[in-house]
Write a sequence for this structure.
């Protein structure tokens, strides 16, 4: 008799993962929803287990799917730039996504990003919960509506409520701003620059809540003046 095929889901895999690095391995075996079938690999969060800040996006994109790392494509480049402008040290930030596999539809040779539905988001949620409960960040920043909906709730509208600092049992500070990919999709140059400036301004507000170890130390005004 053939053995019944076993499709492990998040609950079982997470329960079996004793350390943080074993979680990262375990996610590759996840069959909690169907998205894995179209993806190259799962993309777990990246950063130190001791990070004080966690950024949460939607799902890996094409580049992330191939590289196995979150935010390494165009949206990630923009995110790096915005964090630097806001004075936040990128290497002190843990970056992850609501959904761990790249959800796509095939169009010719291209894989086109497809928003995960609420069932898939729900199925993947235990992985995000496991990251949050093991890292216990001081600040969680949702990037875009998918993450805000998953961690804050349906009543939070990113366009209206962005930058608001919310008390939550997930972290002392929970907040949301736009997704950097939405900046990239803004066609008009002036609008796009304004969007970027507002994104940086939201991140600066978050920077004000962080310990100095998470911030880029800038030369004092005095020493900078002396450098020119
Ligand atoms: N967009 C996301 O939401 N996450 C990534 O990792 C890359 C792009
Ligand atoms: Fe599991 Fe999430 Fe991948 Fe679905 S998207 S298979 S729940 S890791």
């Amino acid at each position: 008799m053939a053995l019944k095929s076993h499709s492990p889901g998040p609950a079982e895999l997470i329960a079996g993962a004793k350390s943080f690095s074993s979680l990262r391995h375990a996610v590759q075996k996840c069959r909690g929803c169907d998205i894995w079938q179209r993806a190259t690999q799962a993309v777990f969060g990246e950063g130190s287990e001791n990070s004080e800040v966690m950024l949460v996006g939607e799902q890996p994109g094409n580049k992330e799917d191939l590289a196995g790392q979150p935010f390494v494509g165009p949206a990630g480049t923009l995110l790096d730039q915005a964090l630097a402008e806001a004075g936040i040290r990128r290497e002190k930030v843990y970056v992850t996504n609501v959904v761990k596999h790249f959800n796509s539809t095939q169009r010719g040779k291209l894989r086109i990003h497809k928003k995960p539905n609420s069932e898939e988001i729900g199925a993947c949620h235990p992985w995000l919960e496991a990251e949050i409960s093991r890292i216990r960040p001081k600040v969680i920043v949702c990037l875009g509506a998918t993450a805000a909906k998953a961690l804050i709730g349906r009543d939070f509208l990113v366009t209206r409520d962005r930058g608001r600092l919310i008390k939550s049992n997930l972290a002392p500070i929970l907040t949301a701003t736009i997704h950097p990919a939405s900046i990239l999709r803004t066609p008009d140059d002036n609008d796009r620059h304004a969007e970027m400036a507002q994104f940086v301004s939201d991140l600066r507000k978050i920077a004000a809540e962080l310990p100095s170890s998470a911030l880029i130390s800038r030369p004092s005004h005095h020493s900078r003046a002396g450098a020119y």
DSSP finds ten helices and six strands in the chain. Residues 57-61, 64, 70-71, 73, 75-76, 97, 181 surround uracil (ligand 1) (CB under 6 Å). The two ends are 79 Å apart (CA to CA).
